């Protein structure tokens, strides 16, 4: 980075994260991944209970495209647009539970 004095920042330079320009220019870039992941996990959880209905709800949401707000899109997909600790715990627990099942199958 010509013209920038990075003296004393050798440890920071090693991480290389600062070279990802979108972190600085598009601060919500990674937040979008988190939002999408939580929605996807909820659709998956619904599919574990009733795959046919989960697919129907997901297709309904896809058909809406960008004609509704994100909370409405989540609702159409059978998901909850909520990021509180209680909601996150439900889906983190589900993921951990499913990972344990897969590990048992693998061993």
Summary tags:
single chain, 107 residues, mainly alpha, 6 helices, 70% helix, flat
What does this structure look like?
The protein has 107 residues and is mainly alpha-helical. Helices cover 70% and strands 0% of the residues. The chain has 6 helices and no strands. The protein has helices at 10-15, 21-25, 29-49, 51-64, 70-76, 85-106. Helix 3 (29-49) runs antiparallel to helix 4 and helix 4 (51-64) packs antiparallel against helix 5 (70-76). It is flat.
Mean pLDDT, nearest integer? 90
What sort of overall outline do the alpha carbons produce when their principal axes are compared? flat
Structural class: mainly alpha
Q: What is the helix content?
A: over 70%
Q: How many helical stretches? A: 6
Radius of gyration: 20 Å
Number-wise, the strands total 0
Element-by-element helix/strand order:
HHHHHH
Can you summarize the main beta sheet? none
Spans with pLDDT under 50 lasting ≥5 residues? none
Strand content: under 5%
Gap between N and C termini, in Å? 49 Å
